[in-house]
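Q: Convert this sequence to structure tokens.
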Amino acid sequence: MEFVFDIREFFKLLFRNWRVIFFLTGFVVLISSVITLYVIPPEYEARVNILVTTEKDAEGSKNVTASEIDSSLKLIDTYRVIIKSPTILEPALKNINKEIDIESLLRKIEIESIKNSQVFTIIVKDQDHAQAVYMANSIANVFKEEVDRLKNLNYIHILTPAKIDDSFTPVDRNPIFNIAISLFLGLFLSVGSVSIKEFLDTTIKSEEKIRRLFSLSVLGEVTPITIGKNKSSKANNELSNKLVINRRSSNFSNYQNLCARLKLSPSVKKNQTMLITSPNSSEGKSLTSANVAIMMAKSTKKTVYIDMNLRGPTGHIAFNLSNDRGVSSFLAGQDQLSEIIQKSDEPNLSIVTSGSVTINPVELFESERFQQLFTELRVMFDIIVIDSPSMDTADTMYLSSEADGCVLVVNPGKTRIDATYKAVEKLKSIQANILGIVLNNKEK
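A:
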């Protein structure tokens, strides 16, 4: 099975998980907004523009060569280093009325220059706007004095000193930009998490995935059956309460549609023997088998339900019948077929329970009475519904040889794709006729 990206499936995935995407994105935006507006302290910026001139500029000469201008431009790179050196910063720190070390001050300073310009800018950032202005001006003044002292020339000119402006605003805290980024990040995280979860989820989820992976039709979907607290039955058991007794029963229409598709299937023969199994145990095959048998009987078809799960039978529990005699006693030669067929409360429906639990049913399935069992049942009934063990046992391989068609029951969100793939391949290996797949406990 190779992975194929389907854009329609992707958008369906997003639509199914729109609540997760909406709330996760909203949560990220909310957290980002709170942090931006209330947690991160605002930071202000002070800027001092510095002009670097040549010797002739300083003397007022009009004949300045290109090489001299180029020399002044190269000086800017030198001055970048000088400004951030202890030679400049230590005297500046003495003028700053704040407890701060050189390393901390360095993190607040930036030097900005424009290409092919003799002007560069000293930028200082601080949470206190006035302090940022004072530090920027102090560094600029110390720098000018130090360069003038070293060269004994007035090459440095402070064009625009930093000043306190009533309209100053924080430079690093941009709520609109931060919220926009958080919105994008939230969408990315939410869509990404949903996509990764779907990619890592190896269970069967949808009808489209079944068709794409296995090229099999979905015969029907059965929603989870809920049992009322005060509902009771003869045996007071959950399985019996989930049978579709009448039209008021939960999932009546779902099973009705399922049976209609089974009867109208092109592969159905006159004496239809249907085997119902699942990739693993506890996926709803026994309940599906019982309800399919009931619905077939309601359509005036003479139907028999036969519990062939001799390792862990449940048919007698579902129909509240005795399990003293059944398939195992017939195959062992202890009873005749007429002795193990029981009547149910549903007209046209007969039940054959499993009989006593058998550790190794394969030995019984290899006997002559095994084929005799189904030969006689085909004569007596229009429809035979086989409640089979799951595909993780060898029993189903023997039973499928007696079935005209096989139905695979899977549980969305529980049945794994690889287990279903193995089950389908096993049935195909013995040329079993796979009628389709039933999605049991499919959420609406």
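The two ends are 28 Å apart (CA to CA).
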